[in-house]
Amino acid sequence: MMFEMVDVIDLTLLLFLSVLAITIARLRNLFAIVIVSGFYSLVSAGLFTVLDAVDVAFTEAAVGAGISTVIMLATLLIVGSEEKPSNRPRIWPLLAVVVTGAFLVYGTLDMHPYGDAQAPIHQHVAPRYIEASGDEIGVPNIVTSVLASYRGYDTLGETCVIFTAGVAVLMLIGQALRFRQKEGEA
Amino acid sequence: MSDQPILRVIAKMFIPFLMLFALYVQFHGDFGPGGGFQAGVIFAAALVLYALIFGTEQAKRVAHPRALQLLVACGILLYAGTGVAGILLGGNFLDYGALDHHNPVHDQHLGILLVEIGVGITVTTVMTSTFFIFSARKNS
Question: What is the pLDDT of residue B17?
Answer without folding.
Answer: 95
